[in-house]
């Protein structure tokens, strides 16, 4: 559980230390701007940006029933963030599996990617696609959902 928060916590800590140094150096405006940048970076790298993650097995079962894609991701992944942002509101129509929280999800990703935990890995109709174009993923979503 803590593993997913390490990067955001480090960003907040580094930003705080740098901002404190700038305040003592007499630049409170620069310190505030720098701290804001670090807080924004921590926010986009946190699990809070993504819809609620579920387990790999539950995602597979739900996907089998309704045909929605399953996205395997991990916090701190720039490509996962790009996919999430480009999907916009459609991201709620996808099942998200955090491979740092779900060992079965990590195993599924390694199986699909020759032993590597390359994310995002998107499973559509039982076929894995590593780092697909967000427009392609959006095209696999039903407009009625």
Automatic annotation (TrEMBL):
Residue intervals passing through the bilayer: 29-50
Keyword Electron transport in the entry? The reply is no
- Record flagged with keyword Zinc: no
| Glutaredoxin domain location | 70-127
For region Disordered, the annotated ranges are 122-145
List the keywords (alphabetical). Membrane, Transmembrane, Transmembrane helix
Q: One Pfam family name from the record? A: Glutaredoxin
Q: What is this protein called?
A: Glutaredoxin domain-containing protein
